[in-house]
Amino acid sequence: MKTVHLILFxxxxxxxxxxxxxxxxxPDYLPMADFDIERFLGKWYEAERYFQFSEVATRCVxxxxxxxPSGRIYVSNEVTNRLTGVKRVIDGSLELSGKAGEGKLNVxxxxxxxxxETALTVLDTDYDSYAVIWSCSGFxxxxxQSAWVMTRERLPSGVVLQQAYGVLDKFKISRTFFVxxxxxxxxxxxxxxxAANGITATSTIAEATGSEQxxxxxPEEKDDKAENPAVEEKQTVQx
Length: 239
Fold this sequence. Notes:
By secondary structure, this protein is an alpha+beta fold. Helices cover about 25% and strands about 35% of the residues. Strands 2-3-4-5-6-7-8-9 form an eight-stranded antiparallel beta barrel.
């Protein structure tokens, strides 16, 4: 009877994180080999994910990985509540785990109500368009899997998604429980506007000082005389 109660309790705990609890241990999926964290840095948009109760009311999910001058990697998850429209940012830090060159990441979040730690496995990525990330948590005789399809573009093309689906099929990860993340009509972040205008901050992470935050590629001051010879000629005549 105690065993039944334990399994029931574990099932409830697992269900609060994901809707796909399974009996047994986590699958032993091999992470991507020759993983290049430098190429992986930057902004990723959540295209699809396994259903999770904690993300039922979320939309416009964006994750940004940035390296500080010290070499430390910071993670910033931006989530918008579809009911209230309130935007929330969850910050943390990232460390590589596992063997050298493996796509295993350990993320520690510091801005959630309770500090949490998540082990992520990058199954595959081409760095430029898609990334497939997987995670699994075990609770005794039950485990729960989570998976994400991340893309560099907020609204990826069908070709990009098909590449990601190929990775899921390779690892026999069912797409039945995947849900599409709503990325339509999302507000454009200031960083996106700056990037479109060719303005890139030296650093956007917490360790940057105020001067570093302001150190952007400012447009060169225009020389009115150089651009308008007529003005210079007119001033010469008047003299």
